[in-house]
Amino acid sequence: MDSQAVFEALYSVCEENVTFFSGGTKGTQGDAGQRLVEVMKRIQDHARSLEPVISGFAAVYHHFDFDPHIPANGYRSLVKVVRCCLLHIIHKGRYITANRRSIFFRVAHNAGEMEAYCNALCQLRALLYLAQRMLHDNSHGNLFFQDESGLSESFIREYASMHKGCFYGRCLGFQTIAIGLVAFGENYKRHQSGIGVAASSFFTSGKYAIDPELRGAEYERITQNLDVHFWKAFWNITETEVLSVNRALSVPPVHFDLPLAANHRASVTIAPPSAHVGTAPVQMRLISYELREGQDSETLLSLSRSEGGAISLSLGLKTKRHPSSPCLLIHFHGGGFVAQTSKSHEPYLKSWSQVLGVPILSVDYSLAPEAPFPRALEECFYAY
Hints:
By secondary structure, the protein is α+β, with helices and mostly antiparallel strands. Helices cover 50% and strands 7% of the residues. It starts with a helix and ends with a helix.
């Protein structure tokens, strides 16, 4: 993309709207019109400072690519984000130009939109300043400092002082997740049960849906001040009893011999997980759309673990036993070894089991920070 053409288009659309709303044209006066003029001028000022910086990065960022076939690095990403912001401002400016004479045109609303992206552009300019310092202080082609004494602390201090809420208001793509997160954060620790937090979050989410600036400020507060336990609680909110059922197993930690695929007369001994917390049962969940032979056997029932209610491997009213499945799908849920369990993923796992016609065994690996890496990885291997 030609950066010069982008900046020229930005200057043009801003200047055209500044001229229109600064004139005496009917309907262009008032505080909202003046806000629009001022923000357009600020955007032009930021753009004039950004243009030579963007050109400078575009001339050298290829030196920092992973390799010639993968044109990607942090400098490229930052420049692309700035260009996306500029393109959105141009698009919004052209919308204003096309609709500003309409009786339905809301000057205040469009001024608020432009102010939000102007604030984002201001913070991106600050990030580019930090990136320039890294580019200057690092040796040629290196993304990281060789000597970080004092410099890392300085960078963190400057980054922490930045206003990041502007990126989480109107400019954020995942609005539904952001609204849910800030509403959940407001009610976090006020209620003991997941149901209480979920219900309160639902009722308080409206104000964050209609006020992007409030949403951005709250998002920034949450992401900077809350600990890992908050994030675990948020991502586990789908595990409330109204959303899932219990089909849980606890497999004892015992050594066993596994025949080799290449030579069935030879075998290898598989040891149970032992990292950090010693040997302990591995938690799993069996999901099957149909009740199959062996799924209600005494052996399997003896491995059942309670999750607060009665446990049964029979699925609802289905009592007909189908033949054993020739296949088994092994599933490791998301959560980065930090959050969630197989319970969070039950809705789509049930659908998979029905569509594929096979049972699914989902591994409830232990979670950090209580069980640090590589405990979860050991449990996944043992379960497999």
